[in-house]
Amino acid sequence: MAAIIQQKNSFPGNILHDSSKASYTFARAITPVSELNELLNRMSETVSSLLDFKGCVIRLKEVPKGWIISSYNIPYGLLKILSGRLGRHISDIVFEQKTPLVVNNTSTINNELKVLSLYVKSFASVPLIKGENVIGTIELYNRQSSVSPDISSFTSAEIITLEGLALLASMAIDKAYACNEARRGNEKLSRLLFINSAVRGTLKLERLLRLVLSSITVNDDLGFNRAVLFLFDSEKRVLKGRMGVTPGDLSKTGSFEQVLARDYNNIPNMTNNNKRVLLNCDSRFNKISCNIEIPVDYNCYITRAVKEKLSFNVKDARQDSNVSPIILNNFNTDAYAIVPVIARDKTIGVLWVDNVYSKREITDDDIEFLSGFANEVASTIENARLFEKVCHAENELENIFESISDMIYITDMEFKIVRANKSVSEIVGKHIDEITGRRCFEVFHNTGSPCEHCLHTKTISSKKSQISEVKGFFHENEETWLLSNSPMFDPFGNITGSVHIVRNISEISKLREQLIMSEKLASLGEMAAGVAHAIRNPLVSVGGFARRLEKDLEPPLNDYANIIVKEVARLEGILKETIGFVRNNSDTSGEKVEINTLLASAVELMENVFDSNISIERNICETPLYITGNSGRLKEAFINLIQNAGQAIESSGKIIVKTMRKEDKAIIEITDQGAGISEKEMRHIFDPFFTTKPNGSGIGLAMTHRIINEHNGIIDVNSEPGSGANFVLTLPLASTDDDNGEGI
Amino acid sequence: MKILIVDDDPNLRQLYGVELEEEGYEIVLAASGKEALEKFDTESPDIVTLDILMPGMDGIEVLRKMKEKNPELPVIMSTAYDYRDDFSVWASEAYVVKSADLSELKDTIKRLIKEKNLGA
Fold it and tell me: What is this model's ipTM?
């Protein structure tokens, strides 16, 4: 090989004088260029023209990718040959020997490079040296000297010039590498910063994830072909695919800026980019991704990334036993990488990427970038996730608030209603806009100042919850309401208002009154039984012996004895009524009773009792009204009511007795035109021993109430003082085997 | 015609005693359930008037024991309040609520005597 090496000083020529000029020209040409590929192109062109070569190839040894090749004016076919075995040989020699190699006439070559002469008449190759190492070569082909138009030889001066140019080139290449590195780093950094500020601006999880995944699948040298985010579900203990993105979803040429412009079209310098690409979230890849669920206890790379907080770069997925078949089958991938997404020391998921289309190998550098990226966005994802949960919880609360049938509203310190639920608007009958912002006493009580017993005021002053029962809580309403009022505090513990819960308890309070009544009766029963027994015996003795005295005494003493006898008889009468009332005779099960007939007989009986100044008007329906019960007891009840009506009539008047059928109920109304019942009396009208009559025992109506209750009926009374009273009995009809009932 | 009057109240025993004696009956008095059962055996009454609420053995138990000994013998239950719903008194022939006016009791005794043909 030494034979073909041209002696450096054999042809001194003009160019020697131009050596410094050549260096100057070369340096001027290449200095402004810092991008490597452009630099190499510029170099090959400039060096060819400076040294009168027809074409040029520059090779750079790139670890680990192989060679970067740049050429000037070399036809594609020749470049293939030169880049193949032949060119490699020349480079190898120069590489090994670290010295230039010049062949002025290839036809003189007789070793393995001889075949070159077919294409190349002359060539010169010079190593590109950085420090001690050869980083590449510059090869010049086919000299076309202006001095000798034919093949011209290369002078040693020219070789020195070439070596000088190679040194300049090496420096420039080195600088370009450094620049490239710096730019890449810079770009990564600016992208991270950009994404960081972009993702901080959104709390919408869906949008955030799309932005994150899009930004790492952009079609440039930082981007991956596909990216999937798996989130860890700590309840189910699975890793679940949350979103998958691939450039197939984007425009093929989608740049990082385009992606951002798409997701953030308000970024000013990107608005001119009208070519907005809509990300298809229903893409097949996304669907596949979202359907993947991997139990975290299953041991594979993806779950290990979660558990061990490690990144994995899987180079041969098909042979690796640590690769989950789920990943392999769904993504059909040869190589992929996984990095954990860690927020506040907790792995919230993993980021999965691959380069299925470009087949570009994923480098450690990529993983490092991805990890940094994952860490940057992790806390934002976690925040968005929490935010989503909070939103969900808030929605739920909102639904509960609105759907609850109690009225709930919040008032501030000035009684203004801050919030109110749907029930408030429904019950008050006002639109919610007419309620919020107004003061509670205006809305509910139609007054201009707070109520006397305002719970809100009590709550504010005591800072404690208040409960109260109110009849007619709001304007023109007479039902019973349960009010509960609790203070509300701001985060600093200052009271800001109160929350009111208002429930209609009319039904409950009615039931409660009934219960109290029956409890009263029960205890009364026990007491009366005891008293009756204790009184009866002495009474019988007193009365019995008085009778004997009456018989044997002379006037006027026998008259005195008679007074004792009569008074004892009266006392016994009261005792009998009381005992009869208390007597536990509630056998209402057996017989079928026809109300109309029974009522008619009671009316008849009472007509005989009443004086002629009282008339009874019958308004009995034609349908027979069968109920199940005790006819004797019911008759007693009817008699009591008619008697009561008669007693209410002072001089003369009319009693109206009416029956009708209403659905499966029998209605019996007994109306008088007497003095009526005052509101105060009304409350106690069914209480035992309550009476307004000078000679009443107070048992009649209590007894009636009890009898109707025993028959599962209801007794209502309507009255206004001065215009009589109206008693309404409602009794359940016997189940509809009415035909049999006719036979009673 | 012998009537056994059972009542823990001495005044009532006295009242019933004089009133029924005047009606022409022979009277035997008992102040407790225990005494009533003894007299029931020794005196062999024709009719019994029996108070229900008594200290110690109550009238209902006395009634049961008497009916075990002689189911045909008429017993009138006499008490301060209405026990008619208590089916254990159904075994008695009659039920009379105590009253200063003894005519109901006297009528009942007469009716029972007639029914049982005791007076014949």
Answer: 0.85
